[in-house]
Specification:
single chain; mainly beta; four-stranded antiparallel sheet; 30 strands; globular
Amino acid sequence: MKPTIKSLSMLFCTVCILPSFLSAQTKTGFHVIADYAVHSTGGWDYITADESSGKVYVSHGMQVNILDAATGDSVGYIPNTQGVHGIAIAHDFNKGYTSNGRANNVSVFDLKTNQVIKTVTAGTNPDAIFYDDFSKKVYAFNGRSKDATVIDAATDSVVATIPLGGKPETGVSDGKGKVFVNIEDTGEEVEIDAATYKILNRWKLTGGEEPSGLAMDRETNRLFIGCGGNQKMIVLDAANGTIVATFPIGRCDGTGFDPGLKLAYASNGEGTITVVRELSADKFELVENITTEPGARTIGVDVVTHKIYLPTAQLKPVAPTTDNPHPRPQQIPGTFHVVVVGK
């Protein structure tokens, strides 16, 4: 994902007005219900809500903060995750994995003790990371080397490196042997065979620019792709790459899906969540925009409690100079927190 501070630089000079022609159907009733303060410094990227343990894993600077999902209390942290982007959870092996962008490696940690077990060398700038419960492999998507490092969760050894032909962002699995990943700079969705590590298809995301966030409904085989470049959510048929629907969103960097509620979410840097309801495999409706906070552009969805978690902080503008006419805003120390959305 894009560095947080850079992504928010425009928030201080403009506010994007999201479309007002939202569906007249039943709204979610969701709103901000809590703020969880995180007392450490640094930027942020992905957030992972682990419904099985009731914990939330927050990437933040050089560590991962672990919060109690219900109370926001700190229950631990993973240190020395240099430039951490994402967190993957593999309960099958009682392990977690972090993608450390500055160190070009992946930290493996024990889910019970939070102790780092091993570090695994990845490609250059590992960004998004996830655990494929079908193949029992961890995929780290490397932004600068434009490939994927595949790690066997049983042995924590690298079993494959997959060239992707572009800068990868978020990846997901269908749970049946296929892995999908957004390619940001080429505007494509790539399908990978989880058994052979071969690319099966490259689908052009017509009408979508800079795809970043990705979520999936495994039941209907639909992908929800957040394209922050032109503020669109694309719903894609994962069987053949057909675009089923397109919706206006904001400057999204993350998407989520709640299978129990049949709701897809796009988290937008303007300070909203765009909600799309799945009525059937081929019918979707735009429901509403939930107000959150500026900067809350990545998302974690707890599919048991149906709560949504979004990291953000207060930022202050920096005066432009001749050498840096478009400076990134600065995070105000002590303001980093996690916004909680629910009923």
